[in-house]
Amino acid sequence: MIVPVTGVFAAVIGILLLVLSAQVVKFRLKYRKGLGVTDDRDFEAAVRAHANLIEYAPLGLIMLAIAELNGVASGLIYWTGMALVVGRILHAFGMINGRGGPHKARMIGILLTWLAILIAAVLLLWNVWQVYG
């Protein structure tokens, strides 16, 4: 079986991960710092934006893929995936441009991410209940 809808979202998140990774590498080369960060807030924000993507995106994508494999309507997968991807992009933008401090895009991004994970969880539970309930 294939998961074409989830595959598109995984590809976009993969590209975002590479962009954020390049930001971190840029700072690591600038400061000759292979591990940890310096007192530079921009460096720390870049590291945390990258790490936060890695903390949230895999679970969201796994949940979407399971839902897609279980036959959940592709429209529901699409809109949930859109919330996840837009949330991750906004969060990264807000984290970097807010230098790790408060930023509207960061706040909206994490809320969209949480919403996407919550919706995916509900879809999975609903699907299992429909099949086995």
UniProtKB/TrEMBL annotation:
Superkingdom, natural source: Bacteria
GO cellular component: membrane
Membrane-spanning residues: 6-25, 76-96, 108-129
Record flagged with keyword Transmembrane: yes
Cellular compartments annotated: Membrane
Family annotation (InterPro entries): MAPEG-like_dom_sf, Membr-assoc_MAPEG
Keywords carried by this UniProt record: Membrane, Transmembrane, Transmembrane helix
Designated name of the protein: Glutathione metabolism protein
Organism: Marinobacter guineae
